[in-house]
Amino acid sequence: MNIKGGYEEHLLGFLSLYETTSNDGYIGSLLITDFQGIPQEFRCTHPIKPTAVQKVLYGDSLEPFIGVNLCGSSLLKSTQTVPSILIVDKNYLIDIRKITTFPVIYVRKAGETIDLSLSEGNKIGKRDRIDPPNSKSHPLIIISHPDFSDDLSVAKKILEKIFIILDPLEPFHRMLKAIEVLGKQDKIFK
Fold it and tell me: What's the superkingdom here (predicted)?
């Protein structure tokens, strides 16, 4: 399939935070793909297991702190490949934009609710909708960081072209499966 406009050169980054299968910790994961979804680089953190006291002290800020400050920043610093845009599947991960030089976009299926309790200051940036090119996919809502609203138009142009080939939410399922495989191979990832 031919994609016009040089989108073939864009690399897509996908960042997420997953709970361990034992539900006692979190694993950060970063996948960078080409425009077709072919992996170029994959990284994940060792599980971060907060203590009971840390869970109480951090409260609702625990997951955002782990996702952005502990996992997200270290994963992005360690990567050898720089994405054109970074797609996140949790609204609090949008705050990673404060330390990147490239656009970061929160993507979700249209109609899903947003948990504002985990957003910094409960702020949500500009949003737009991308309709799928076929009936296999769901319409998507894309949201920029409130301080980087220009990211929205840049990301929308890229994602509309790429959505023809790749559902921007699909790589998150692959990342989860990869972490599950790691958990079966090495008990530290459980």
Answer: Bacteria
> H or E segment at 129?
strand 127-130
The predicted-structure confidence for 47-70, as pLDDT tens digits, reads as follows 999 999 999 999 999 999 999 999
Please name each of the domains of the chain with its CATH number.
10-189 (3.30.2170)
pTM confidence score:
0.90
Structure tokens at 141: 């809502």
pLDDT at 96: 98
Which structure tokens are listed for 160?
A: 């509309």
CA distance 167 to 139: 10
Would you list the DSSP string of 36-65?
A: T--EEEEEEPPPB---HHHHHHHGGGHHHI
Contacts of 127 (CB under 8 A, 6+ apart): 141, 142, 143, 144, 152
CA 32 to chain centre: 10
| 165 C-beta neighbours (distance < 10 Å), count | 14
**What single-letter amino acid sits at 49?**
K
* Contact criterion met (CB below 8 Å) for 13 and 85: yes
Tell me which residue has tokens 């909708």: 129
Dump pLDDT digits (tens) for 12-60. Answer: 999 999 999 888 999 999 999 999 999 999 999 999 999 999 999 999 9
